[in-house]
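Action item from last week, closing it out:
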Amino acid sequence: MSVIYFLIGLGIFVAGGFLIAFIWAVRSGQYDDDYTPSVRMLFDDYKPEADIDQNVADVKEVNKKDNVDKSNNN
């Protein structure tokens, strides 16, 4: 029975050590992202408003055609 108490204590000690290491890493800036901001301009995910409006109009037109096709099939 004393072995169980020892292992529980050891487990709590190890878990506390990992918690302290994690808190230290967060506070020291280990998880700060220094790379992405410098290459963000290379990512091509910006769409001008005109393109977005055109895409929305295209989707509405396709949906309208699908609805007309479905009503003609009945």
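Closing note: The chain is about 75% helix and 0% strand.
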